[in-house]
Each structure stands twice: as C-alpha cells, then as structure tokens.
Amino acid sequence: MKSITIKGSERESVGKKATKALRNAGKVPCVVYGGEKPLHFSADELAFKNLVYTPNAHTVVVELEDKKKVRAIMQDIQFHPVTDKIQHIDFYQLFDDKEVTLNIPVRLEGNSPGVRNGGRLLFRNRKLTIKALPDNLPDFFKVDISKLKIGDNILVESLESDEFSILQPSTTVVVQVKTARAAVVVDDEDEEGEEVEGEVTAAEGAEETTEAAE
Questions:
Q1: What residue ranges in 1-49 does DSSP mark as E strands?
Q2: DSSP-assigned states of every residue in 97-150
Q3: Fewer beta carbons under 10 A from the terminal one: N or C of the chain?
Q4: Are residues 32 and 119 in the same domain?
Q5: What is the domain range of residue 125?
Q6: What is the pTM assigned to this prediction?
Q7: Looking at the structure, do residues 81 and 111 belong to the same domain, yes or no?
C-alpha cells in the first residue's frame, strides 16, 4: 500500500488552550495510539490534503523534528461543524507482526454487456473492510465487470485472498446488474435478444440513480 509522509512537531502541551492556539495557527492536533504511550503531535492542515480528501487508502509515516518516524494508519477524524476544517486526527501505530483493520476502496474495470443491453449497474459496496498485516494491505480491490450480464453479480467471496481477511460475509454483493424495463436480455444462443415490455419512466430513472448511490 502507498504511504504518505506527514511532517510534524511533537506536542509538549495537550490542554484546550494549547490545542486552540494550534488550530488558530493553521495546524491540526493529532495523536498516535497503539505504542507504549500515546504520541501527540501537530502538523500543517495542508499536509493532510492527500490523505483525507481522496477515496484511496494510504498508510502514513509521521516524521517528527527529532527524526523520529512512526508508521501508522488514520483511525478517526473530526471536522468543524461549520467551516469543515480538520479539528483532530487519531492514528494507530503499525507493527510488522500485528494485523490491522482498514477500509479498502473497490475499483470497477471494464464495460458490462448487461449495462449495454439496458440493465442497471448497482455498485453496492464501494469499500470493503479487511484485516491484514501492514505489508499485505492492498491499495484497492480491482473488480472486472466486463462479463457481467443482466442478473449477474460479483460477491465478496471472489475477492478473498490468503494475505488478508475480508470482514464482510462472503455472500455480500459488491456490484450487480439488475433488469430494467426496456432492457434487452441476451442469451448465449440468441444474439438478437428479447426486449422486455415497457418503458423506463422518469421516476424509475430517478430510482436508478438513488439505488446506484447506495
């Protein structure tokens, strides 16, 4: 998995007054858990841009002024309710021999023949939660939909690996193609296909958009 380096300064004071002063200076107070004791540090808000504002998953190397480096993953983040500025970030320290839990994004590749024939592509799970050793964390799951016909789906079980455990049940649907009115159902022996009676109304189109977002 790709790593992002965050350069920061260890915090000597963690009180409310010191925390407010950091935020006023454009810095984000953070803490790394999982080691012998919590590590409190701060860094410029811009330093977290490629970590927070992306659908991708990353590990982090926290690099402090005394050349201390800590490998971690982001566990929790708090935003200001009005300005949406980052208020605080919790990290969890990584160790080579300890498994961690992380959400990994799913990427679809290819063009579904079922969609070309008028079916609806429903992306049910855009992220999957896995448990793995740090060195076995994948950047993303690649899901090929180029063979998905109307009525087909791809389940979690097809993405399982010996290098990690997926915490969702193996029967969980990741992506599927559902029949829509006016869809063309093509059998292997019938290249022409059969048109399903009816038309897609504007309301059904809105329903499709809503379901796809779920």
A1: 3-10, 27-33, 39-44
A2: TS-EEEEEEEEEES--HHHHTT-EEEE--SEEEEEE-GGG--S-EEEE-TT--T
A3: C
A4: no
A5: 101-213
A6: 0.78
A7: no
